[in-house]
Fold this protein.
Amino acid sequence: MRHHLILRVITKLLIGSIMLFALYVQFHGDYSPGGGFQAGVIMAVAFIIYGVVFSLDEAQRVLPPWVVHKMAALGVLIYAATGVYSLFVGYGFLDYTALSPDYPEKGQHYGILLVELGVGVTVTGVMVTIYYAFTSRTPIMDDEAW
Amino acid sequence: MATETVLHTALTLVDQLPALQILVSFIAAPLIVVLGSRRLAWPIAFAASALSLVIAAILLSQVLDGSIISYRMGGWAPPLGIEYRVDAANAFVLFLVAAISTVVLPYARTSFSKEISTRHHTAFYAAYLLCFSGLLGVTITGDAFNVFVFLEVSSLSTYVLIAQGAERDKRALTAAYDYLIMGTVGATFFVIGIGFLYMATGTLNLADIADRIAEQGSNRTIRAAFAFIVVGIGLKVAMYPLHRWLPNAYTYAPSAVTAFLAATATKVAVYVMLRFIFSVFQPNFLFEFNTLEFIILPFALIAMFACSFVAIFQSDFKMMLAFSSVAQIGYILLGISFLTETGVTAAVAHLFNHGITKATLFMAVGAYVFTANGSYYDTIQGLGRRMPLTSAAVVVGGLSLIGVPGTAGFISKWVLVQGALEKGWWPVAILIVASSLLAVIYVWRVIEVLYMRPTPENCEVREAPMSMVVPMWIAALACIYFGLNTDLTLSAAQTAAQGLMSGSAGMR
């Protein structure tokens, strides 16, 4: 039952750095190429590669499907809540100036960080959901047939 | 570091209404999923929908005198930023969409409980709200690309909603898939058209595009953009040769979804078409004039006859209504193709009147599906006395569909005939009346099935629950009310038509 030893070891080494890279892309999105979409996909890759190598059940023990579904919705809420906050403070919807009225340019930074965080969470959730949806169908070939 | 204080006047709640119009339902949708409670899903959806209706009513009352509300998303001024722009034309459509949704949701609760398994309910209401806010977004936005984005939000959730009918009939899956393919082709054409417009004008703000097109006149890029946009939106409208997705999608979707979509989705697409044909492109361009007179007008006439004929020979009540919808869209497109103020008034009025009429009828079909488990004529025969309230609503809706005086359908057809006579198009006016006679036939068939045929032996069908009958009758009474009191519909439709017809000037 110990197949693909090299794959397993390398995957375990990779997952950490993939996640770290995802966070880097996430939080450097406003300075350099990147942002929520890219970071979300990279973060999802960490879970997907775990699922590919260690089986779907293992992946779903780490990240159960119901959590993933909530993540997809939660990200949208984070995004919207940022806008609603600015709306309550008396600015337009998603007017980031509201986050720091005295230093508008800082407000823009905070705003884009929060919004991209929402995007990242949603994209991670959606990517993993799609992966779960496709792989949880009955396999055509089982693991032993390799 | 800039330390100067930036003066800012806080926006009041009323200023924020254009944003709140879509935000309420757009936030409620993920909220339902995050809470994940089956008991809370419906109350949240209903509260969001009712709140949207209140906002739409306030917005409509503000713009009925012909004024315009402009809202800057994210505080970026148009034409660079995304602008939300409310005028009489789209406030009217916003009101229609929100009103239909608020009436349909109480009905949907009972109807879904039988048609959709409970474990899908939370996700279902979330998809419903996304579809709802997508439709509102398409209507309210003043940015061409934003129209596309919201069109996709509403379309993608619509495919999900239609596919939910698979629990009752597996054909819902192929219907949803057909619509997915056709809808995606339509959206692609639409976005290609917007790409051409952006190439020609360098801007995405609708009012700004209109100004620049007026400056530079017609050229090949703009003509190509026009063609792509008309075909793309034509698919969403179910314009005659592009309508094949509609009958199956409406027939196999869950009843409440059909009632909601039939009354709103195609109507919103018609609004987008009106906006592009009359405000963004100049109605006095020769190519546009030709398109309307030699393409849209004949196809509208064919739709009125061909689809009414097909509707006559259906054996399924729901399928019959779906084909009748395509025929009725023919009337709306006919009004547009007149290129006169009366014609557009008729189109906008029929958009509203047909919306409430079809909502009534599809809700009645849903009641038969609920009690008798089907909408085939064989299944519902003789139910007129068993389900008196539902069947009476069918009669009211049917009369409005034909255009009998005293119902909403009459008003818009009357204005339409007036428009045809104004242009001196006598044959068209006669064709409008003639196609209404076809509507008499297909409506009579249903009434005959319901009232004249004997009720089958050992039939245990009883009247549908009140939660379904009451919303149905609210829509049915609206059909009568708007047939007798035309102040709101016609004056709003006229203000809308004036705004639309004045080209780019109407967007300022």
